[in-house]
Amino acid sequence: MNVKTIAQIGGDGIGPEVVKQGRKAADAAMAGSGTELRWREFPWGAGHYRSTGEILPENAVEELSHCDSIYLGAIGDPSVKPGVLERGILLTLRFAFDMYVNLRPARAFPKVPIPIEGAAEKGIDLLVVRENTEDLYMGLGGTGDGEIDQIIEAKRGLYNLTGHVSMSTGHRMALQMGIATEPAVRRITATACGYARGRGERSILLATKANAMPHLYGFWEEIAADEAKGQGMAMETMNVDAMCYHAVRRPWEFGTILCPNLFGDIVSDLFAGITGGLGVAAGGNQGDGIGMFEPIHGSAPDIAGTDSANPLAAILSASLMLRSLGEGKGATAIERAVETFLNESDQDRLPKEMGGQAGTEEIGDSVASIIERDREGKQP
């Protein structure tokens, strides 16, 4: 029996509820496959922080390094200052395990309302490949009353960055630094080319803003274009503001989109909204080792415990996780089951955010049952 150990972090709000349903689907997909999923549950999130005063224990990275993947529900709670848990858990783990790829697929699903007339009929199936360790998300900068003078340090899988910044304006000020390095741009570009090739595409599209920020994003364009050429893939560019404009007019024209960190965060949420909302928006953080998979949505504490959360995004994130572990058959089984569930469900059995009355648990049970039914070759 092949064993894969999965670190389960339910997190906050609806996180534990939706992760439970994704776990059901993953276990159902792996049943009889020769691969066993062994789950290790970790309590990290707002509750752990309030009770212990620590965001992550000192041995967290070491504990997780013995797992094959991380499956996360959601992080964030009104009782904790915004950013504390997000930086302390999400960014810490992304950087510690050098998860330099953030994958955010966006596609039109059956019966999921799309806000753009005619888009569902034309079909939407795109993939945002977001660089996940650099750009303006490095956490470098500071504030000052007239001047800033500080040491700059950052540890990444590719390098240890050190430096010093000193400047003055005579006014209260803030500085946020964005960094791009050639090896980081090359590896994410190569990754995007690989996904595009697997999707049967001949080119990738880079989201940029080199006209306004030539040093950072002009560098990105230069390196990415050279790497794409070496990968045998054409590359087009589009300013990120223009991309947002065209996305809501012709979303069906987009395929594989390569993005620096900040732009990727923004446009992936836009495409999620275009394709029906965060309830069907899966996400994955990957590198050359352990990955972390999570729905794009937040913790939604206002509906926690009400059986109202839509678990489909978490279930689809479990599919991304299985695919990253080399379990493509199981991943496909989950994706097909989600489509079948939406196709077969009457309006009142759809998730509540889609106008139905189905609860979180019912949806998870339905998807898992479809996976089992398909495996056994039974008729609906």
TrEMBL record:
<feature type="compositionally biased region" description="Basic and acidic residues">
    <location>
        <begin position="371"/>
        <end position="380"/>
    </location>
</feature>
<keyword id="KW-0560">Oxidoreductase</keyword>
<keyword id="KW-0479">Metal-binding</keyword>
<dbReference type="GO" id="GO:0051287">
    <property type="term" value="F:NAD binding"/>
</dbReference>
<dbReference type="Pfam" id="PF00180">
    <property type="entry name" value="Iso_dh"/>
</dbReference>
<dbReference type="GO" id="GO:0000287">
    <property type="term" value="F:magnesium ion binding"/>
</dbReference>
<feature type="domain" description="Isopropylmalate dehydrogenase-like">
    <location>
        <begin position="5"/>
        <end position="367"/>
    </location>
</feature>
<dbReference type="InterPro" id="IPR024084">
    <property type="entry name" value="IsoPropMal-DH-like_dom"/>
</dbReference>
<protein>
    <submittedName>
        <fullName>3-isopropylmalate dehydrogenase</fullName>
    </submittedName>
</protein>
<keyword id="KW-0464">Manganese</keyword>
<feature type="region of interest" description="Disordered">
    <location>
        <begin position="344"/>
        <end position="380"/>
    </location>
</feature>
<dbReference type="GO" id="GO:0016616">
    <property type="term" value="F:oxidoreductase activity, acting on the CH-OH group of donors, NAD or NADP as acceptor"/>
</dbReference>
<dbReference type="InterPro" id="IPR019818">
    <property type="entry name" value="IsoCit/isopropylmalate_DH_CS"/>
</dbReference>
<keyword id="KW-0520">NAD</keyword>
<dbReference type="InterPro" id="IPR050501">
    <property type="entry name" value="ICDH/IPMDH"/>
</dbReference>
